[in-house]
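Journal club side-thread
Mid-discussion, someone asked how the predicted structure for our own chain would compare to the paper's figures. Pasting it here so we can look after the session.
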Amino acid sequence: MDAEEERPLLSAATERAFYAARSASLPEETYAIFARWWQLETWLRELVYVELRSLYGSAWQKAVAASAGRQRQDAQFQHMSSADSDNPLAYLDYSQLLKVIAEHDDQLRYALLEPRSWAGRQDELMRIRHRIGHMRKPHSDDLGRLEQTLRDLERGAFIACASYNRRSGPDPDKHSDPVTQGWLRRQHPTALRLIDHAEARYDTSFELTVSRRPWATYPDDLDGAEGIFWHASFYIRRNSLEIKKLWRQLQGGGAPLVHLVSDDPGSVHFTFSAVDGGTPIAEAIGRAFDAVLMSCRVGRQVESDEDFERWQRQAREIDYRVVSGSHWSIVDETTVPISMFGAGGGIDFPPQW
């Protein structure tokens, strides 16, 4: 028996709760229905977050203002906070989330169903959501309906994540924005101070790239452009990144930070929305660079698969903006065939967008 087979699927506490609930006559299909709904709603919230950040930058929360009251109430219970506590999208009802989606059809349509089909599907999905929320027993077709919806979203989910990871380096001869010139021409003082120093002293290299959302086009001027993400990447070859220390150094990342992406202690990537302007982003990259170097320690933290899983789990527990072991960090045009949701669908060949 190999290590993968020996590793338990559930923790002891989870397994106890699972069997205790079954003995209390909880229908076993309810576990599967809840898990599939978690996949669906979590995915929609992640997708909406990415597209709103790419469209509005740091002002994105104005589009989800309906969540403010609940979030303020929850903030009173600091001892119960979680990685989602600062995420306004986590406080929207599903119906409110659908309203935000409808209001941003131009940015989200590519990832969903044809609009009339999507709207028609919601009546049935809302019934399932209500049954889950009010602890009613499921219909025999609830699981099938959810899994069909996930299969229908496979293509759009692949495009959303693969476009996030389809990156290219900006041309400093073509682009005069503060990020390109500051970090590729080293006109920013932190770039001048740290790029060579980090390579020589810490064996850490820096890379600057951009990506565009499927609904956007690359503009001539990247400064303030909608639908464009900046990605500042750091590759740490000799040391190991302490991600919790990094987050503390960043003091929550600051308003421009969209994602902090790190699958392992050897690399970390910071995502920013170009809408926020070149000068603030160039400054944020400088702060991130200093924080990365101050958050490394000598030696390796990860030696086994269990270490990787533990490291990624701890990273995901920090904040909703910290991405680790996720489709957003893994999926690109080469990761085919793939199933985004494991619900019976999949992508055999990368679609065009």
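Post-session note: The chain has a mean pLDDT of 92.
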